[in-house]
Amino acid sequence: MKKNLMKILAAAGMAVLTMGALAGCGNSTTETTAAGTKAAETTAGTTQTTTAAATTTAKAAAELKGSISMVGSTSMEKLATALSEVFMEKYPGVTVQAEFVGSGAGIEAVTNGAADIGNASRNLKDEEKSKGIVENIVAIDGIAVVTDPSNKVENLTKDQLIAIYNGTTTSWKDLGGADQPIVVIGRESGSGTRSAFEELLKLEDKCKYSNELDSTGAVMAKVASTPGSIGYVSLDVLDKTVKTLKLENTDPTPENIKAGSYFLSRPFVMATKGDISKQNDNVKALFDYIHSDEGKELVKSVGLIPAN
């Protein structure tokens, strides 16, 4: 009888242990299922948020309508054209009109309310800022010094470049080149490139030009076709029709400009009358784009350095 009782108690104990184990397994399964459900809900929520953001962006793009006018620097033509084309693809209801007539004219246009944006390839002057014009730097450009392709000179020091443009040095022979007169080519008065070049070299009103041309393209063409010539142009227009000189043994590359080792560099400014926050929705969207990661890649694609 005693043996039978012991067997019954042992069996009962085993049953209790088995039920406990099964209960533990049941709780684990429930917790895992709950965690999985929560993760799925989180993923779904993230997807919904991303979709909502994309929908909002698309809606904003569809709602923007009208036009944006940009006037100014010929040196900024490549950037402004690329920016206009991409922006109009993203915002089909907005037309971007760009006119390239020089930095001074661009600042005057935005000051007078004739343009939404004044493109300038230089820093704004204090007198311009005093009229409520805001300097919005969107890119950094290098100014390259170029000669005709047959020129044998490879490098100029800063002092040699100054001596050429102030008329002290008049023959390439004095610089290790051919016995040939130097034909000094520059931009017209009011050009942002000229203003930046002369300011960086402290040559304001001191340059002795053989030719003063009204666009970057004209300088490139004149230098390419004129033996003994020298000129300065925006970094992003360089091609094989001219020879690009080193300055202080440094090439005009984005890397060297960003490092500060190439001394001829200047800002590309998209000036507005008042802060960006005070502009219309179309203009604000344009600045939002150029300051975005995609906009910065666009700046790089045309040979410039993003401002930030």
UniProtKB/TrEMBL annotation:
CDD domains: PBP2_phosphate_like_1 (cd13653)
Location within or outside the cell: Cell membrane
Keyword Lipoprotein carried by entry: yes
Domain of life: Bacteria
Entry keywords, A to Z: Cell membrane, Lipoprotein, Membrane, Palmitate, Phosphate transport, Signal, Transport
Segments forming domain PBP: 59-294
Main location group: membrane
Signal peptide (residue range): 1-23
SUPFAM superfamilies: Periplasmic binding protein-like II
Record's bilayer topology term: Lipid-anchor
Matches recorded under PANTHER family: PERIPLASMIC PHOSPHATE BINDING COMPONENT OF PHOSPHATE ABC TRANSPORTER (PTHR30570), PHOSPHATE-BINDING PROTEIN PSTS (PTHR30570:SF1)
Function: Part of the ABC transporter complex PstSACB involved in phosphate import. Involved in the system for phosphate transport across the cytoplasmic membrane.
Subunit: The complex is composed of two ATP-binding proteins (PstB), two transmembrane proteins (PstC and PstA) and a solute-binding protein (PstS).
Family, similarity comment: Belongs to the PstS family.
Name of the protein described by the UniProt record: Phosphate-binding protein
